[in-house]
């Protein structure tokens, strides 16, 4: 349980005006109950989670209703979760692109963030070290804003070679160990290399593939919301 520091100091300051041990004790008990009570945010609206990503988040090649964010929202709604998913997916975005638009993406004041990036860095053969710098800058900013993060990992395409693939994957492995990170090892887990779950490009999931991703992600998103 976290007590807002400004409420605690207000209570302690107020006790200075009181006299009598019993009066002070009863006042402190009432004050601590007020401090520990949920803020107005929890009662006023659902937890808002930004899905910051690329075409896998944006739903490239799919009808909007079949894409990741609407399907995830529908699954959460069906479970009665007070969670709203904000769509921050932009097709074609690299980690650098997402970093450049981060201020704009955070404009809707989310309470937590899903980070799904790196696929386009890998497809373009961009330097994994630069990708790590970009992702680190994103995570640093989210941490400064006290936003819990679910980081979803990615693998480089096999045609980029084993060495590149190892360096690429190592970036996500290192970032997954940052304090406070909730880790999803691979966004396309259970979908990649399954032609019946992929579109014709063998990169993006089809509607059935999105369903697989959503089913795996729902428990993680619920955990992320509880960290808010």
TrEMBL record:
Pfam family, one: Lipase_GDSL_2
Gene Ontology MF term list: phosphatidylcholine lysophospholipase activity
Gene3D superfamilies linked: SGNH hydrolase
Highest taxon, organism lineage: Bacteria
SGNH hydrolase-type esterase domain span: 51-211
InterPro entries associated with the record: Ester_Hydrolysis_Enzymes, SGNH_hydro, SGNH_hydro_sf
PANTHER family according to UniProt: THIOESTERASE 1/PROTEASE 1/LYSOPHOSPHOLIPASE L1, THIOESTERASE 1_PROTEASE 1_LYSOPHOSPHOLIPASE L1
Name assigned to this protein: Arylesterase
Gene source species: Gluconacetobacter dulcium
């Amino acid at each position: 349980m976290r007590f807002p520091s400004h409420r605690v100091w207000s209570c302690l300051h107020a006790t200075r005006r009181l006299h009598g041990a019993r009066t002070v004790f009863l006042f402190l008990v009432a004050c601590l109950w007020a401090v520990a009570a949920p803020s107005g945010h929890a009662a006023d609206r659902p937890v808002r989670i930004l899905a910051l990503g690329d075409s896998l988040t944006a739903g490239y090649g799919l009808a909007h209703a079949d894409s990741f964010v609407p399907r995830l929202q529908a699954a959460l709604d069906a479970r009665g979760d007070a969670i709203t998913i904000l769509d921050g997916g932009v097709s074609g975005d690299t980690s650098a692109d997402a970093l450049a638009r981060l201020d704009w993406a955070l404009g809707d004041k989310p309470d937590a963030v899903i980070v799904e990036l790196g696929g386009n860095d890998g497809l373009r053969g961009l330097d994994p070290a630069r990708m790590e710098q970009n992702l680190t800058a994103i995570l640093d900013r989210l941490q400064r804003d006290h936003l819990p993060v679910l980081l979803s990992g990615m693998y480089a395409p096999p045609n980029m070679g084993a060495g590149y693939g190892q360096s690429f994957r190592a970036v996500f492995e290192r970032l997954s160990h940052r304090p406070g990170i909730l880790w999803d090892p691979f966004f396309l887990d259970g979908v990649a290399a399954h032609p019946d779950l992929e579109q014709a490009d063998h990169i993006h999931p089809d509607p059935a593939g999105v369903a697989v991703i959503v089913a795996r992600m729902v428990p993680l998103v619920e955990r992320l919301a509880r960290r808010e």
